[in-house]
């Protein structure tokens, strides 16, 4: 979806404030891993979009393209990619545009770009463009209306037009405004400004733009002050005016990073309050790849709450233009959404409204990609899951500890900690894990909870949500037989169980798709975003069993007794999917009593 369309849609809600984040490509692999972890947390607060910069002189072109792809398709946030003219002949520009188009990205921030490293002035590369205006014209001419094009606005004029006294002449300022209008007239539909610290200058800039006929939205770029030296470096590079009161406030605390950061949050909050009070309901936060200051400003403004992260669906809705209407998924990948996305990325169509027609969809084969983890998460697994295992009791204790929140990581989860709804049933989960039913996925029964409930809500306010209780676990054949026998006394239970080799035990057919989550909302059809699909379960089981080897036993050296124990469980245990279809007064845990 184009950002301009998203902004226009959101602003139909009077008083709605639209906010977004900017990131830049880190220099190391660890930095990239950490950035994705940070993005995941920040995107949970529902920014309207996020953008990723293009390194000076095109130095990070390939990395920017890769990060943009993952932002759109794995992090699932509407992504805008910067694209500059520096060192970019038209062939490279078109390659970048074709790449992001094929990845479902529709948004570009078109820039001239800074001079290449080691040079003082921008030089047009042979076969390239001289300015952002030429780039905007090219994108519109070649790609029509596919891309939403954003351009930069400079409240104090472009740095090249600012003199040694820190000011642009009135003529230079007016020329800069006229050039901005030419970019908009050529096809740009959104303006994001360079950083500023004098809010009055920004408000004057907006008014000046309107006076010359620029009608598109103008989004203020807010850069929180995180440390004094970085602040001076950035304002010096951009030739940004520093108000006297800011200099006065920073001078006595400039050597105290925490005090500077606290002041930066205060200043950013007050700037945003003044902007919002003047009727501009958009904020773009230059994060510098740091989350605390940006989120603190939004919290101070009442735009986000840590305890109330809203969800349009029980899982994060895709941003990719090819799957933006997707609204149904099998529950099995609830804790591994990135794996699900990577295994379904080649589908021609994505299920909408109901799962039925997707039963025969072909999932991508398992590859190393499904088992790759960010280094920080790898380290956490190593710390929490590589202790010696002497018996099955030790394994059961691990699963119990995770369900009780004593461990933050799990080999079967890409998430940091438990889903909020799991805390409703974590004591019961702990008990059945100690009985040898090793749970990796679950949800409690829900009967008409408000859709803005902090634990089980989704879809926004005004609706009601429902869930059938669900458990997914590994257990021995002996325990499975006992459970099957006892389940005959629980008529509302349906189950599918399978071992690594494909031996199947079930009381339903492989085509019996079961909606286990649904919502009722005003003026809408019933939404059923989560299903139990036995055919997909047979695909998921290969991944679930492989995790025993790839993600857990791999933490131990060859020949280690702990590794041998885990391999034995992988070979002999069954994976079980259990649903209690009585969501009103059922008791899915009752079947485990006396087993």
What does this structure look like?
The protein is of the alpha/beta class. It has two domains: 3-301, TIM Barrel (Alpha-Beta Barrel); 329-353 and 368-391 and 436-592, no CATH class. The chain is 37% helix and 16% strand. The chain has a nine-stranded parallel beta sheet. α10 crosses α11, α14 packs antiparallel against α15 and α17 runs antiparallel to α18.
Concise account of the structure shown:
This protein is α/β, with parallel strands linked by helices and 595 residues long. The chain contains 18 helices and 19 strands.
CATH names the topology of the largest domain as TIM Barrel
Strand order of the largest sheet: 7-6-5-4-3-2-1-9-8
Number of strands: 19
Give a short account of the largest sheet.
Answer: 9 strands, parallel
Number of helices: 18
Tell me the helix content.
25-40%
Low-confidence stretches at least 5 residues in length (pLDDT < 50)?
none
* Cα radius of gyration in angstroms: 27 Å
Distance between the termini: 51 Å
Structural class: alpha/beta
List the domain count as a whole number: 2
CATH class of the largest domain: Alpha Beta
Mean pLDDT: 94
Second rung of CATH, namely the architecture of the largest domain: Alpha-Beta Barrel
Overall outline: elongated
Q: Into which percentage range does the β-strand content fall?
A: 15-25%
